[in-house]
Write a structure and sequence with these properties.
Distance between the termini: 62 Å
Structural class: alpha/beta
Helix content: 25-40%
Number of helices: 19
Number of domains: 3
Radius of gyration: 26 Å
Number of strands: 22
Bound molecules: flavin-adenine dinucleotide
Strand order of the largest sheet: 4-3-2-8-19
Largest sheet: 5 strands, parallel
Strand content: 5-15%
CATH superfamily of the largest domain: FAD/NAD(P)-binding domain
Shape: globular
CATH class of the largest domain: Alpha Beta
């Protein structure tokens, strides 16, 4: 490390540790100017505020009270059809079977695992790590030596995890593969029937009657391919990152990426799939691209799978970090990034991309949790370009006036459209008062917990859709949805009235739009991961308790400083498996390093020192308000 880099690291350390002095100076200042009593009161109340608020990240809107009606003793056995055997479908089948319902799951593909099993490239790895992607009551496989494995699974390893989970919980017999659901409708008697085609025999059968359906058909099917000026003049090949996702088992990497082999390639967008694809085609296949450029419109937040601390990056998703209001966290993270030394071409490329993010909104944008393409940038095999302007024959022009010539292949890394459900009969589903529902296809954000369309009630639940997180994983949130689903189907939880559902949806939608619409075009498909899972946990009754601060302080600190995993939601409440959960929560290491933790804790503690009086008053008024009888309009 050169002297300049060493000096920068030293300054960065000093600034980070300096924040530790801020709350201490405030307390000392109070003691000096106002006396020991105000200083002691501020210290005690500020500390309590800090510890309570830190357990439940998210803004107040996201920490909203549970809305489902509770009837823990209820149980009615039901018949449920699950569409799709990806992680969301698998978790739904397990939760429903475990609760005692009759379940059948149809999947058009030939094996369990959804996208991970059928639409991944050979050797491809997940971007979320095993414990962050795991279901709450089944630990990821250990290493041969018997140690916890924290590094990322390959798609095949994750599919094996899903299979083992099913075997462990005895849910193997519910799945029918190569069965495509063609048409789902509601009968006059309110039961649901489905036309299902056996893709092996070509025969279509009518299945049912079912009391409920769980739509787990996946969000990554309809590719988005925006039009560009002059695209029609391009004589080469147009691909989407999904076109490489053949079959993880039947093809080799060379076969999967043969269209790029030895070619001159331009890609558009730098999401997670594209970041991996670029890394592979430029450096990993036997005959790599001879030229590659990537057009990036608004910068990108690149988080390599392994962070500077040596841990998997998503272990930084702790309650401590995420409890700081986003605006302040954004400033803190930006400061953190500014102070990080840029030692090589990889780091320079990464930080350049971050600098171009709109309003430097690091904590608001979706991240690309892969730095797989960075070595290619360092080796001069990949060029990062600004937005694409126009195409003229084989030449691609960018908005800064530069161009890429003689291009053979253009790859869209532009993501997917809002999921749709061509199999649901738009005219047969009725409201509880008997009117036909013409549009059951609400976008995910127009559904309660992204699951329940107020018009359809609890008959149809959508899982795994519109729950893309900025950090964390989709399967973990889908499992929380599955736990809610099983309780609703059993009657242990009941959906509120239609107006109450709509009111709650509107509140959350307004908040999500305010927070993310400026930064993410498809903001309505994203969730704030920890608050979303906490919201589901409140409904289930399995949210970690704030009184553990006094009764189980060691566990409490572990919850605050460790990465969030779904095992935290099996410690208590419905479906608790405390022995397993405790064991894993204590074994998962503390997220990030001491310096970062002290820095974020100091920022948060400083906020608590001045926020506690206002929040205490608000809590008192809230408690008084809830003593007043509610009007009949309220649910
Ligand atoms: C390259 C790539 C990498 C990814 N990496 C990660 C990661 O690291 N972490 C993460 O959280 N997410 C990742 N994702 C997102 C991942 O796709 C989702 O997390 C996960 O697949 C969601 O599971 P799901 O069950 O909702 O849907 P899917 O896994 O897509 O499963 C849906 C299933 O429904 C079936 N189906 C659809 N329609 C019908 C029908 N009409 N009849 C019968 N069956 C039907 C499909 O065949 C499919 O098997 C990645 C995605 C891609 C493409």
């Amino acid at each position: 490390m050169g002297i300049a880099a060493k000096l920068k690291t030293l300054v960065a350390s000093a600034i980070h540790w300096f924040f530790f002095l801020v709350p201490a100076s405030i307390i000392y200042g109070l003691y000096f100017f106002a006396g020991p009593i105000p200083a002691a009161v501020t210290f005690v109340c500020g500390t309590l505020h800090f510890l309570i608020v830190i357990l439940f990240p998210g803004e107040k809107t996201e920490r909203i009270r549970p809305i489902l009606k509770v009837n823990d003793m209820a149980f009615t056995k039901k018949s449920v059809m699950v569409i799709g055997a990806g992680p969301a479908g698998v978790a739904s089948c397990k939760e429903l079977s475990e609760a005692g319902h009759d379940v059948v799951c149809f999947d058009a593909s030939s094996r369990l695992g959804g996208t991970f099993a059928n639409y991944f490239w050979p050797g491809g790895h997940l971007t979320s790590s095993p414990y962050v992607t795991a279901f709450s009551d089944f630990e990821p496989a250990r290493t041969k030596e018997g140690n916890e494995r924290f590094t990322h699974h390959s798609a095949e390893e994750y599919v094996e995890y899903l299979n083992k989970y099913c075997r462990h919980y005895g849910v193997k017999d519910v799945f029918q593969f190569q069965h495509k659901v063609l048409h789902v409708k509601e009968n006059e008697d309110g039961k649901i029937m489905a036309d299902v085609k056996n893709l092996e025999t070509g025969k279509t059968t009518v299945e049912g009657p079912f009391d409920h359906i769980a739509v787990c058909s996946g969000a990554f099917h309809t590719t988005l391919k925006p039009k560009f000026k002059g695209l029609e003049t391009f004589p080469g090949q147009l691909l989407h990152s999904r076109d490489f996702v053949a079959s993880a088992t039947k093809t080799t990497v060379d076969e999967a990426f043969k269209d790029c082999s030895g070619k001159r390639v331009v890609s558009i967008g730098l999401g997670e799939s594209m970041a991996d694809v670029l890394g592979i085609i430029t450096t990993k296949i036997s005959k790599p691209t001879t030229y590659a450029a990537c057009a990036v419109r608004k910068g990108a937040l690149i988080i390599p799978r392994i962070a500077h601390t040596g841990q998997v990056a998503d272990f930084h998703s702790t309650r401590l970090r995420h409890a700081i209001p986003k605006r302040i966290r954004n400033m803190a993270v930006n400061l953190n990034l500014t102070l990080t030394p840029r030692r090589n071409a990889k780091a320079i490329a990464r930080f350049d991309l971050m600098d171009k993010l709109p309003s430097k909104g690091v904590t608001y944008v979706k991240s690309t949790k892969s730095g797989f393409f960075l070595p290619a940038v360092e080796q001069g095999k990949l060029f990062i370009k600004p937005a694409l302007d126009r195409i003229e024959g084989k030449t691609v022009h960018y908005v800064d006036g530069t161009k890429s010539e003689d291009i053979d292949v253009i790859i869209y890394g532009t993501g997917y459209d809002v999921p749709n459900f061509p199999f649901i009969d738009e005219n047969s589903f009725k409201t509880s008062t008997g009117e036909k529902i013409m549009d059951p296809h609400s976008v995910p954000i127009d559904r309660l917990f992204r699951m329940y369309n107020p018009e359809l009630g609890d008959k149809v639940a959508y899982l795994g859709l519109g729950i893309r997180p900025l950090v964390g994983s989709i399967p973990s949130s889908a499992e929380m949805q599955a736990r809610v689903l099983a309780m609703v189907v059993s009657g242990k939880r009941e959906l509120p009235s239609k107006p109450a559902m709509k009111e709650r949806i509107m509140k959350l939608k307004k908040f999500a739009s305010m927070e993310s619409a400026e930064f993410i075009e498809q903001w309505f498909l994203y969730v704030n991961w920890i608050p979303f899972m906490d919201m589901m946990a409140r409904e289930i009754g399995c949210i970690p308790r704030s009184y553990w601060m006094l009764t189980r302080p060691v566990l409490y600190l572990k919850l605050i400083f460790s990465p969030v995993t779904t095992f935290q939601y099996r410690l208590i409440g419905h479906g608790a498996k405390p022995k397993l959960a405790n064991d894993i929560v204590f074994r998962v290491p503390t997220g990030t390093n001491v310096r970062d933790n002290v820095f974020f804790a100091s920022v948060h503690y400083t906020l608590s020192l001045y926020r506690w009086p206002r929040d205490t008053l608000e809590a008192i008024f809230y408690a008084l308000g809830s003593l007043v009888p509610k009007s009949s309009k309220m649910d």
